[in-house]
């Protein structure tokens, strides 16, 4: 097999933490924020909106890309939200989990609202600017 001709990258649908950050940014309270902050990043699930986004992306892929070509491999991260997105997006495809396919790990920042990140972790953000 030669080198791939096409590479398509698609992010997961809205996750529980994405939804929590959106509500916080709007000034709304998040009842389960403490519980979410204790959960490892890889375990966040899709919200109902995230499921709909995955289905819409799957329909778009079928209409615009998959009708024209077959892909040799379909890779997905092992994160729950990625696996769920893949399953809703292209359920008929055989997905291969790959540990190298994942988004940035926010570590200690995963549950910290965006507005608080720069105050609680000012030194870290200052180092990134340098």
Major beta-sheet overview: 2 strands, parallel
Provide the helix percentage.
40-55%
Give the SSE string: HHHEHEHH
The termini sit apart by 43 Å
- Please give the radius of gyration in angstroms: 17 Å
Gross morphology is globular
Brief descriptors of the model:
130 residues; two-stranded parallel ribbon; mainly alpha; globular; 6 helices
Write the layout of secondary structure elements.
Layout: H1 16-25, H2 33-38, H3 48-66, E1 75-76, H4 80-89, E2 96-97, H5 114-120, H6 122-129
Parallel strand pairs: 1-2
Helix pairs in contact: 3-4, 5-6
Word description of this protein:
With 130 residues, the chain is mainly alpha-helical. Helix content is 46%, strand content 3%. The chain contains six helices and two strands. The chain has a two-stranded parallel ribbon. Helix 5 crosses helix 6. The chain starts with 15 loop residues before the first helix and ends with a helix. The model has no long low-confidence stretch (mean pLDDT 85).
Overview in brief:
It contains six helices and two strands; from the N terminus they run H-H-H-E-H-E-H-H.
């Amino acid at each position: 097999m030669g080198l791939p001709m096409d590479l398509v990258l698609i992010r997961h649908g809205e996750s529980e933490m994405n939804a929590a950050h959106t509500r916080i940014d709007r000034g709304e309270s998040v009842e389960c924020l403490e519980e979410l902050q204790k959960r490892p990043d890889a375990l966040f699930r899709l919200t109902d909106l995230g499921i709909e986004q995955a289905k819409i992306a799957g329909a778009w892929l079928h209409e615009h890309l998959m009708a024209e070509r077959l892909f040799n491999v379909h890779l997905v991260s092992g994160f729950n939200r990625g696996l769920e997105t893949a399953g809703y997006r292209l359920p008929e495809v055989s997905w291969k989990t790959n540990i190298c396919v994942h988004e940035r790990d926010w570590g200690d920042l995963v549950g910290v609202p965006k507005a608080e990140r720069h105050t609680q972790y000012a030194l870290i953000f200052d180092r990134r600017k340098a």
